[in-house]
Amino acid sequence: MDSAGRLQFAPDLSVAQGTLTIDDNVVAVAADLPPITYACAVARNTGTYVTGVAPALQLHWDLTSADWDSADWQQNVLQFTYQMQPQTIVGQTFYDFSVSFRDEQTGATWSPADGKFGCLIDQNSVFAMTLASGSPPLDNRLWLAGEAGKIVTVFPYQIALQLSATAIDLQGAALTVANAQYGVTLGVSGSTASPSINGYYAQGGSESNFGVHNGTLYVAGSPVMGSRLVGAKLSWQGLDAKAQQASGLPPAGTLLFDTTGERFTLTETGTGGGRIVDEAAEALIARGAVWGGM
Amino acid sequence: MATPKGSGIGRFDLGDWRDQVFAFDYDGTGKLDHLACYRPGTGTIWILKKVSDSDSPEAFAAVYHQGDPGQGIAGYNLADSRDRVFAFDSGGTGKLDHLASYRPGTGTIWILKKVSDNDSPDAFAAVYHQGDPGSGIGGFDLGDWRDQVFAFDYGATGKLDHLVCYRPGTGMIRILKKVSDSDSPDAFAAVYHQDNPGRGIGGFDLSNGGDRLFAFDYGGTGKLDHLVCYRPGTGTIWILKKVSDNDSPDAFLPVYPTNAVLPVYTTLTAKISALFAALPDHNFNVAGNAARAALVNRLMGCTSGTFGFDARGAGGSLYTFSFRDQFFYGFAPDANAGYITPATGLGDDWWTAFNVVVICQAIYYVTSNTRNAVRQPDVNNQVAALNGALQSAHVNFFYAGVLAETVGTRVQTVFAQIAASDRAQAARMYVSLLENPAWISAKVGQAASGQWTDQLWNYCTIG
Hints:
The complex is a heterodimer of chains A (294) and B (463). With 294 residues, chain A is mostly beta strands. Chain A has three domains: 1-32, no CATH class; 36-191, no CATH class; 195-293, no CATH class. Chain A has helices at residues 66-70, 146-150, 241-247, 278-293, and strands spanning 3-9, 16-22, 25-31, 36-43, 49-51, 58-60, 74-89, 92-103, 109-110, 117-121, 126-131, 158-163, 169-176, 184-191, 199-203, 210-213, 216-219, 222-223, 228-230, 233-236, 253-257, 263-266, 272-275. Chain A has a nine-stranded antiparallel beta sheet with strand order 9-8-7-4-14-13-12-11-10, with no helix packed on it. A nine-stranded antiparallel beta sheet of chain A has the order 18-17-16-15-23-22-21-20-19. Chain A has a three-stranded antiparallel beta sheet with strand order 1-2-3, with no helix packed on it. The two termini of chain A are 17 Å apart. Chain B has 463 residues and is of the alpha+beta class. Chain B contains ten helices and 18 strands. In chain B, the strands form five sheets. In chain B, strands 1-2-3-4 form a four-stranded antiparallel beta sheet, with no helix packed on it. A four-stranded antiparallel beta sheet of chain B has the order 5-6-7-8, with no helix packed on it. Chain B has a four-stranded antiparallel beta sheet with strand order 9-10-11-12, with no helix packed on it. In chain B, a hairpin with a 4-residue loop joins strand 10 (162-167) and strand 11. In chain B, helix 2 (286-301) packs across helix 7 and helix 5 (348-366) runs antiparallel to helix 6. The longest helix of chain B is centred in the last third of the chain and has 19 residues, at 348-366.
């Protein structure tokens, strides 16, 4: 397969447009900043609180507090996504925020419309979003068992989230239920995919292999729908027999990578593996292409 | 020899062991030219102005005074022996023209502004006050008798407009910034905090009840932007420099002593993350200064040629001198200069040529007659072109090396913890994080918010 491409960046490097040639097919492509998704744990009683009077409410949290540590954290509850989208006004490029929220436990989603919210990332890398008018949609969580059911909603009127220096992690607070001091504050702690977990991998002693690119599992060159890398955890489900053979992975599971993305452990079996490089990678990938063609 | 008993100053007799004195900018002139003298527990406070140069107590006169007993100032009654007062730049004007009064253990703290020149308590008014008991300030509850507060130039702006509040013996410390003019505790917000128990600051754990801190101008810049931390009776004294705006103990690093216990990062990811956060100090970039000094030194070192005179005809000798010694007397190679050529590939010939045009440029700008022999704008153009060539030759690689090795920088602190065998992988991880859409989007979002104020400093790399 012969591939070639050409991208022309705008003078301010905000966007790029061009063509990709794959074999004899030419397609037009445009590149811009992708949406960034953080998978977040959420908890009540984390010591977070709000001060001030609407619309100048201010969220507070303390990662060093005993409340934060001892809270009953509910993992993978909230998926928070934002994207920086360029807009050209009178020849100048400006960026606007778009945000969306998904309650992973109820499946409810919410994308506030343009003009209904304001966003800012301050000099200390605190991401703040404030709903300017209206209310978040209903997020019926009352039927959930245990602590999860005590969290009334994860859709916030306001969030203030401290991004880590690398922007891989965030931690902070969300104001829910009411846009006032008597609203309910939640602690929020999330991660996006680590870029170190990228490339080709194989289990120890196996000739099967798989790839991880852009936070997604690839088997025989094809993305596995629904697979997702959150922090250092890669989860998937629904691998058919052929894909299982090609990858050496079970139908569903979770791989836990080390922080450098070099090694992994399959949490279901405890077996491990690592990144494959150079000739070994080429050989195994060639096999994958054969499998992919089966 | 015992100090003889005196008469105090400006009729403030200093006759009580509780008496305290500090300098104050009473007139708001930007000069600390008044003395505030007070006696905690009695309501006594005097503000003295120098009225003559004579060596007598009358050289100072009170512009404000409340005797013993008195009513304190602006409603702050100074009736408790724990009371402390200091000058503070509450307005962020660069003037220490406000008074901050606090009472450890009670939550009480007031900030007072002068509103008239009258010699009466209402000459000052509270712009912030929390009574006894109160809620303290900016999340620091002032609920312990050990609590201490002082003014600090956190932003290295030349203004003592932040408050450092700490509790010796607990590791608890907050640095507060005024964020509004409201008279409520959230008018101040913490830019740095460690709660109780906490880890102190910059590795100084504040675990001893005798620990004390104060603001200090370590760099001789005219800014009280360093913190001196000491522990009486133990020989321990550290001087801390702010190296980032992060709200974590490693936002400050000891510049003295250099063998102080530094933050330890356990994982490679944590080390890379710390490098991401390790931007140079805007106002005191020791690595930048070291790199610049080495580059200038390399340039000076390549001054070629000699001159002399022959005195042999008069029974003397043939005297020769190098132009380098003539232009740069006492020249000695910089310790970092030897790394420039390996990093840039620019050898002695290149530096000699650069040196010639730079000296010609200097002759043009600093001499009266010889300048006519210098061809302009050719020389300026050549200097600009060679500067451009230096940048194209990846002089940043040299800077990165200096940054990684210069003690007193946060980069060096972290870099020293990355084993040589891990550095290639660390570099790959650093680059992958730098190219990661999450980081790029965060920076674009920060720029779109008008908040990415240190863009030029974000060009850190691993050498």
